[in-house]
């Protein structure tokens, strides 16, 4: 992994998005991501929707079971759903982030260890049915449509932090 920026804590505003959400076994997660990216781009292009960075959001993580995942894109405003493409919002708040090239597992481990060293709690509910995140995503800062080699993608990993208590 080549670390480009961070880890750090950043405050992000609400951002409109549109995406396709599915439940898939862990082993099939990345193949689903790639297939859904192409489908999402095609559906939005057909409708003339302009969009920004693509993201891969993990809503529920159950490594032994199923993952609830979403492939989405940031949009300038709300997008009308079409049954398959759903409108949404990447929520505002404090996020632990880092930007890297190549190898997301190491990036994930680096960010989690960094946050623990600083006693930063994630917005996450851990339970036997899978960990449910307030917002955890990888934003592809390199456009996957122009660079198909995933090892060259510049990626921002962002995990929403729990609200601070007073």
TrEMBL record:
Pfam families: GyrI-like. InterPro entries: AraC_E-bd (IPR010499), GyrI-like (IPR029442), Reg_factor_effector_dom_sf (IPR011256). Residues 5-162 form the AraC effector-binding domain. SMART domains: AraC_E_bind. It comes from the Bacteria. This is AraC effector-binding domain-containing protein. It comes from Planobispora longispora. The lineage of its organism: Bacteria, Bacillati, Actinomycetota, Actinomycetes, Streptosporangiales.
